[in-house]
């Protein structure tokens, strides 16, 4: 299955269901360039995610200081509830799978508490598996086996393969995850989520950097630091892009005038709105409406 867009809520939580309540597992055979934006935008989910770069190169961003590049043959593990973004300037084919931690073992079980919970509670957001590193070979082999099971196996084959993958992973990197402190990265992400919720609730009103920072109980400088570290942008830029996205939706799904839409999305100056919209979407609001409705 190939997704073409990452749909998220106001906190960037992905809205796509991955599997079912009875079997919370999903397999995707994707090419990054087929996503509508040409990349997989910022999002997070409760599932654990595994990616194999079958072809091309892939850039994964978790925070400004933890961007990594993967080559063909490399793999990636992304922890649950971690904001991340995937890009591929040269193109990449990335078969991947997602599953809830409870697929591995019941939450109250000894297996979950000993081998799953420490990874979830750690301060590490991702792990890179290098094809050139012999130490990563067992995990990459188990990842390939899990992908093969997802393509043609039944639920039992898939669950057994996922358990084998997790066993190989915790044996290779479990100690490093357990030792990682859950510190400033997790705190910055929590603060950003609180500020995003404030922005999405008040975007139609006058919003200031001071008000955004106050929503997380921090200073303006700390708000800037958290946004830069987590999303590589500023609170004001996030607000602008959110307003433009809401304006685009109104252009496509209502008959409201451009002026009414601009005001409804918090733009007090119509000329400024038209300039920003044109810069972001490559055409004026009126042209965008005409082109996409036709």
From TrEMBL:
One Pfam family, short name: AraC_binding
UniProt keyword annotations, A-Z: DNA-binding, Transcription, Transcription regulation
Top-rank lineage group of the source organism: Bacteria
Coiled coil location: none
Keyword RNA-binding assigned: no
GO molecular function, one term: sequence-specific DNA binding
Domain HTH araC/xylS-type: 193-291
Keyword Transcription belongs to the record: yes
Classification via SUPFAM superfamilies: Homeodomain-like (SSF46689), RmlC-like cupins (SSF51182)
InterPro entries found in the cross-reference section: AraC-bd (IPR003313), AraC_XylS_family_regulators (IPR050204), Homeodomain-like_sf (IPR009057), HTH_AraC (IPR018060), HTH_AraC-typ_CS (IPR018062), RmlC-like_jellyroll (IPR014710), RmlC_Cupin_sf (IPR011051), Tscrpt_reg_AraC-type_HTH (IPR020449)
Record-linked PANTHER family: HTH-TYPE TRANSCRIPTIONAL ACTIVATOR RHAS-RELATED (PTHR46796)
Name of the protein described by the UniProt record: AraC family transcriptional regulator
Taxonomic lineage: Bacteria, Bacillati, Bacillota, Clostridia, Eubacteriales
């Amino acid at each position: 299955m190939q997704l073409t867009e990452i749909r998220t809520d106001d906190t960037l939580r992905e809205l796509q269901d991955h599997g079912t309540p009875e079997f919370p597992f999903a397999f995707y055979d994707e090419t990054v360039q087929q996503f509508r934006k040409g990349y997989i935008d910022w999002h997070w989910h409760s599932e654990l995610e595994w990616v194999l770069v079958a072809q091309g190169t892939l850039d994964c961003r978790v925070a400004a200081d933890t961007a990594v590049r993967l080559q063909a043959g490399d793999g990636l593990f992304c922890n649950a509830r971690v904001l991340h973004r995937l890009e591929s300037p040269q193109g990449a084919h990335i078969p991947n799978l997602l599953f809830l931690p409870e697929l591995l073992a019941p939450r109250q079980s000894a297996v979950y508490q000993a081998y799953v919970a420490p990874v979830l509670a750690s301060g590490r957001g991702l792990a890179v598996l290098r094809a050139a590193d012999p130490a990563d070979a067992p995990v990459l082999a188990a990842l390939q086996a899990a992908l093969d099971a997802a393509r043609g196996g039944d639920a039992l084959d898939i669950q057994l393969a996922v358990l084998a993958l997790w066993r190989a992973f915790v044996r290779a990197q479990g100690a490093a995850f357990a030792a990682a402190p859950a510190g400033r990265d997790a705190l910055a992400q929590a603060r950003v989520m609180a500020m995003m919720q404030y922005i999405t609730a008040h975007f139609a009103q006058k919003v200031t950097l001071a008000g955004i920072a106050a929503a997380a109980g921090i200073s303006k400088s700390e708000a800037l630091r958290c946004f830069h570290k987590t999303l590589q942008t500023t609170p004001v830029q996030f607000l602008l892009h959110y307003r433009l996205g809401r304006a685009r939706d109104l252009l496509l799904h209502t008959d409201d005038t451009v002026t009414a839409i601009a005001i409804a999305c918090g733009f007090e100056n119509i000329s400024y709105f038209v300039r920003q919209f044109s810069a972001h979407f490559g055409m004026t609001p009126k042209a965008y409406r005409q082109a996409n409705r036709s």
